[in-house]
Amino acid sequence: xxxxxxxxxxxxxxxxxxxLEKKLAAIGITSIQDLLFHLPLRYEDRTxxxxxxxxxxxxxxxxxxxxxxxxxxxxxxxxxxxxxxxSSGSMTLRFFHFSAAQKESLAVGTQxxxxxxxxxxxxxxxxxxxxxKPLSQVSQEPSDTLTPIYPTTEGLMQPRLxxxxxxxxxxxxxxxxxxxxxxxxxxxxxxxxSLTDAIRHIHRPPANAFGGWDREAPNPGRxxxxxEELLTHRLSxxxxxxxAAAQTAPQFAGENQLIRGFLSTLxxxxxxxxxxxxxxxxDDLSRxxxxxxxxxxxxxxxxxxxxxxxxxxxxxxxxxxxxxxxTEILAExxxxxxxxxxxxxxxxxxxxSGKQKGKSRAEQLExxxxxxxxxxxGTHALFQGEVHYAKLxxxxxxxxxxxxxxxxxxxxxxxxxxxxxxxxxxxxxTPIPRTLAMSAYADLDNSIIDELPPGRxxxxxxxxxxxxxxxxxxxxAAACENRSQAYWVCTLIDESEVLQCQxxxxxxxxxxxxxxxxxxxxxxxRMKPSEKAEVMxxxxxxEIDLLxxxxxxxxxxxxxxxxxxxxxxxxxxxxAQLHQLxxxxxxxSIKSHCILLYQSPLSRxxxxxxxxxxxxxxxxxxAEKDLELRGPGQVLGTAQTGLMEFRIADLVRDxxxxxxxxxxxxxxLSQHPQVVDSLVRRWLGENIHYAxx
Length: 693
Ligand code: ADP
Ligand code: MG
Known about the structure:
With 693 residues, this protein is an alpha/beta fold. The protein is 39% helix and 18% strand. The chain folds into 4 domains: 95 residues, CATH 2.40.50.140; 103 residues, no CATH class; 193 residues, P-loop containing nucleotide triphosphate hydrolases (Rossmann fold); 157 residues, Rossmann fold (3-Layer(aba) Sandwich), CATH 3.40.50.300. Strand 3 and strand 4 form a beta hairpin. The site of adenosine-5'-diphosphate has 16 residues, from helix 10.
């Protein structure tokens, strides 16, 4: 039997001793397989030597020539300036940091090969701090493949890592077995390159691959690996779901007293979209396996009502519900809503957060433990050790893009440790692009509320430079004179809450001075909950005309009489967040406007992004655009990027692959389940740990 490289230690390679082994382990490399799947970040083209006369500014290029002068310069900064001449002309090499030995090695008459970025200098082309080597020390012919640049760690130099990975690639090229876990029929069906070819290609691309490498151009080696990576990712999430499906959860069936009662108090009819979503959820809740469902819908589509209906199913069956929001403010808002809805039905709504102290905290926890409290609303504190539920049946997570796979896992683990398998409903604040839903959320089923309640008028969005702030303020005066209300949203780049709140305070003061006839209110995240609630109530009662706020109002403010929103520095926010904010106006029948008041000049990307906001009111479309323009890490939010940092796959570039990957995953799970572990080990390594849920 051929020994596979999967588990073979890197120590087998030349020059890898215990010290190096340790460094490799620090970047997650403990086997030859890990070396092979340690993929380049980018490439450098050192396949050609360019003549000095052909240098192009802004490109990384390689030159060979003789040093014709080398002198110290004393300007603003001391530097070493050398001239390098070849048959076509000469260029300048400039060093700001250099040792005596380096200076020595650049003596006049030395023949050098140099590599670096070409810049415009005072006397022609210049290279700053190029890599260089005396010609006597380099092999005569330049490399015929591109030079890979790998992610590395301190104390492990690029050339060293490159040489070790090179040895591993030699083993594969020399026909040592690297196990291909992809079933043959999948490789054939999707016309994928062989694993050996793909590995060779990714580590040693031919010179002509350059330019097509990380772009849209087809690239069989890269595509094969990206496919395998996406497949593995999906398999790992699918397995989580299958694990859950093997557990028993409480079944909520029968009478729906509370639901009928609740519906009769609502001042509106459910939309078709809400009905469909709730029917799907209801169906899950009546089964003996835990629901894992994502509820998506555009801003204002009425997800909260669907969450409330779901909660009532559990409560009606005698179970408790935990409703978790990512921030204190959002959680408070939910608590207010649910109290209003549920207390008339005789349901006890509790509140629990990290900040809650003393007696009320202890009392609250007691009522949860006894089962008296039927629905507990709060932050992630809901699942800290001290909270004991009498009979938890349903967890609802309002996630705002901040609650990733890892957290979902941890939550399931926690639930398992409490010996319960509650149902789970995850709500998103705004729609998630399809590609992300198919990858980051592949462990969940999906319900979509695909329509808005009737009677909403689309918001008209304007993009205005801060230089026209005066006109914008006049516009507010006009709107308020018309008995309409307005928001002014202050944002800051570094998201420091303190600074944001200060900015809002200053803005509120200025606006109050500039608009003496307008009643200005202020709400921000550092105010006490009771103060916030009071301001909001006064705004709702139309005792405040203009509400100056931080992004706090992103969450659940509902004042249909407000028809104008000004958002400062919108270029700094994600499109999903802007869309979420804008969703606060246009709730009534009056025509509403949203003014994006940007700081000029606006970058090209900024222009494009704000343009999307002007063009569209469709959260699903905006989410796709946001992904395209900002990438998955940004769109998902920091807490979640870990799992979305693919080594080679790119959700935007490879979007078209996802349907194939989905089919392939189904096939692997049903026909070749034994390869899942090996694939997960190869691509996700120790990164992901599976809870024994
Ligand atoms: P989101 O999906 O953004 O969380 P909400 O649940 O906050 O939306 O609902 C937005 C507003 O629409 C709320 O004021 C809610 O009461 C109202 N609403 C919800 N469903 C309906 C409906 N079917 N008809 C009319 N208004 C509705
Ligand atoms: Mg909501």
